[in-house]
Specification:
With about 180 residues, the chain is an alpha/beta fold. It has three helices and nine strands, in the order E-H-E-H-E-E-E-H-E-E-E-E. Helix 1 crosses helix 2. Bound molecules: xanthosine-5'-monophosphate (XMP) and magnesium ion (MG). Keywords: Cytoplasm, Glycosyltransferase, Magnesium, Metal-binding, Nucleotide-binding, Purine salvage, Transferase.
């Protein structure tokens, strides 16, 4: 598969870039209202949350700052153990800050559970989660997700920062990957 159009590999578009932008504007307005008079630090989880953080903060009217973390699950198995390794830590001190962790997608929520307890120990004034997409399984996780873009079906999706094998992040829509890509 060389130099092909990424769109040839999609079976269904779930959300168009316009729908994503519309929902991000609503979430941004809600965050502006909820945090009026308090400056938010958006903590993006690399690499998937790059597009969400970029668009979310530009849709906000309040002052806002951003920082980044990169994490990886331990081990080589296909199932997440919930134990993660920090590959890149924050540059910012969280002490007294109003932090919103920004994710592209929550599936089981195991990665996020670990991350939240790690960040909570750094003494932020407040700590919440925003995810652009959420799968049904996430309803069983014990951490609260304050802001959700869209709840989606339990299908493997790509686009708007989400990848398959490093590809498709540049697609503006959120789409289900066609089965021919896996084989
Ligand atoms: P957990 O299960 O810990 O995992 O919530 C979340 C991470 O799994 C990846 N993930 C996906 N990536 N399309 C993707 O491109 C998907 O449909 C998908 N579902 C889960 C993603 O890296 C996320 O951060
Ligand atoms: Mg990924």
């Amino acid at each position: 598969m060389d130099a092909a159009d990424v769109r040839d590999d999609l079976s269904e578009v779930l959300y168009t870039s316009d729908q994503i932008a519309e929902r991000i504007a609503e979430v941004a307005a809600q965050i502006d209202e909820d945090y009026a008079g308090r400056e938010v630090l958006l903590v993006g989880v690399l690499n998937g949350a790059v597009m969400v953080v970029a668009d979310l903060q530009r849709a906000m009217k309040n002052h806002v700052q951003m920082d980044w973390m990169a994490v990886s699950s331990y081990g080589s198995g296909t199932q997440s153990s919930g134990v993660v390794r920090i590959l890149k830590d924050l540059s910012s001190d969280l002490d007294g800050r109003h932090v919103i962790v920004v994710e592209d997608i929550i599936d089981t929520g195991l990665t996020l559970s670990y991350l939240m307890s790690n960040l909570a120990s750094r003494n932020p004034a407040s700590l919440e989660i925003m995810t652009m997409f959420r799968k049904p399984e996430a309803s069983r996780m014990e951490v609260d997700v304050k802001y959700v873009g869209y709840d989606i079906p339990n299908k493997f999706v790509v686009g708007f920062g989400l990848d398959y094998d490093g590809r498709y992040r540049n697609l503006r829509d959120l789409a289900i990957l066609s089965p021919h890509v896996y084989s």
